[in-house]
Amino acid sequence: MIVLSFIGHFSVGLLTLLVLLIAYYKWSFLYWKKKNIPYIEPTIPFGNLMNMVTRKISRIEELTMLYNNLKAKGYKHCGIWQLAAPTYFVLDLDLLKNILIKDFDHFVDRGFYCNEKDDPIGCHLFAIEGDRWKKMRKQASTIFTATKLKGMFQILQECGNNMQNYIDNLIENGDQPVNMKDIASSFTADTVGSSTMGIKCRSFTDTDKNFMNHGRQALETDRKGQLRLLFGQFFPNLARKLGLRQIKREVSDFFYRVILDTVDKRKKNNVERNDFLQLLMNMKENSNSGPPLSTDDLVALSFGLFIGGFETSASSFTFCVYYLALHQDIQEKVREEVKRVTAKYNNEITYDCLSELTYMQQVFDETWRLNPPAHTVNRVCTKDYKVPGEDLVIEKGTQVLVTITGIHQDKEYYHNPKEFDPEHFNAENSKNRPPFAFIPFGAGPRICIGERFGKMSLKSAMALLLRRYRVTLAKRTLVPLKLCPTPFVPVAEGGVWVHFQKL
Ligand code: HEM
């Protein structure tokens, strides 16, 4: 009897909750209609994020298709919903420029979830907000000057040599083809791990690839993980009350331990090293450069740089090698440039020679145009904003979403948008294009802080590779590329399998 009564009450409670939830959704789905701007019809419960559930195509392709459909209708902007949350989807480059730069103080935050109490390492530069972000960003910027980056070039050379030894062994042992993503991930785990956390990761020789795998897990989002992040993003207070973490406990514990161990060892042995971690340690000890950093701040900053740089750089390296293997003439042209430029530097790849590799830069830019590693720019409105020239006020709390891939493949800005053509970035074409038509590193005060480091490490690795090897695609690589339905960085389905041949 008691059991029956309990079931009865429980069912009524559940039904009431369901009715309330549906009513909330219905009310929220009127939002953009009331604002009188174009919108895409949403469905309960995922709003316009249906593909996240079905995973028929990648999120990148889904947003690009949305962009193309809306652009074809001549829309400058549009309303969509992520779950029940109204999201402002921007297409027009002038509106975008206002949001990212001119009126940045209305859009300071990215609206990503972090939980300082239960998961302090997840509160890194990418995720933190408001004044805390402003303070940390200012401090972190001081460690990215040209002189400091030049001081880290030696780390890149050491990691590059490890990569070269690894490929030499592959060739000698006939272990080919090889998945370029594995080489790229090992290289960037080593370079970014070594420079941001100060440890020798040795991903090429470490058979269980402990460090690299933990790095991958930090960004891994299966369907469950993705829903957890979305829940945190749209219901942050409830998520924090429930102790929801951004990163799995095992992964954040691993990185917390790694960073603190290195800090302790350096202090005990009085060792200093030319890397980001050392600069952060100095900043923590010496508060002249701003308010003192706490230990949690130091760990989160160091980890955030690693997370920001690891998969983005690995993806860039992999896709760039794919395009060069596919276009042998372009590969040869980059190789010739590397030979010509390094000849002036005693045949060495130096920090100074990188800026002269202008055609290689065009090739990377074209790779980032077609496959930007971070494919969206996200902001959240932090104070009500009247959109210039429109009868529209974006209210505080509204998410803002921009598809970088959509913009990069827009035929209004690129004459053959689907083709890999580095001439899109020759001086003439670059000059004639609106600046916001190419934003692989985002834009404005929240632009990628690691852009210069990323470019430096990728160009040095590519120079090393092309001077020594010819790269060709193995049969098992899909041409044209197909993207996995992963949510963040683009990943080629089936991998990018290549052969290296010594020159
Ligand atoms: C090489 C390829 C890379 C690409 C394409 C890339 C792209 C991006 C993009 C699009 C953003 C968001 C910008 C915005 O919202 O306007 C970002 C932010 C960020 N990136 Fe990168 N990134 C790369 C490498 C790196 C590296 C090597 C590091 C660290 C050493 C790094 C650290 C960060 C951090 C910490 C942020 C957050 C900045 C903030 O909110 O203040 N990134 N990146």
TrEMBL record:
Pfam families, from UniProt? p450 (PF00067)
The entry's keywords: Endoplasmic reticulum, Heme, Iron, Membrane, Metal-binding, Microsome, Monooxygenase, Oxidoreductase, Transmembrane, Transmembrane helix
Which compartment or compartments is the protein found in?
Endoplasmic reticulum membrane; Microsome membrane
Q: GO molecular function, one example?
A: oxidoreductase activity, acting on paired donors, with incorporation or reduction of molecular oxygen
Question: Where does the source fall among the domains of life?
Answer: Eukaryota
UniProt-annotated binding residues for heme? C448
Where is the chain membrane-spanning? 6-25
> Which co-factor is required?
heme
Its GO CC terms are: endoplasmic reticulum membrane
InterPro entries recorded for this chain? Cyt_P450, Cyt_P450_CS, Cyt_P450_E_grp-I, Cyt_P450_sf, Insect_CytP450_Detox
Membrane topology note = Peripheral membrane protein
Q: Key word Endoplasmic reticulum present in the record?
A: yes
Task: Spell out the family assignment given in the record's similarity comment.
Answer: Belongs to the cytochrome P450 family.
Name recorded for this polypeptide: Cytochrome P450
| Species | Phaedon cochleariae (Mustard beetle)
